[in-house]
Design goal:
Elements: H1 14-33, H2 39-53
């Protein structure tokens, strides 16, 4: 017998979805161009965008 774990759906607003997909596209383009970023650089970039959104 196979049991599965119940899945919970998470509601995400359209703005957050668009930002997520934009970031994925940006990362994909960077990979194609051979550009790399450290985890710290990515964290700083995300924090900066969050600050800009909440102002």
């Amino acid at each position: 017998m196979l049991t599965t774990k119940e899945q919970n759906t998470v509601e995400v607003n359209d703005t957050a979805k668009l930002e997520f997909y934009r970031l994925i596209g940006e990362g994909y383009k960077a990979m194609q161009d051979g550009r790399t970023s450290t985890i710290e650089e990515v964290r700083e970039k995300i924090d900066q965008r969050r600050k800009e959104r909440h102002v």
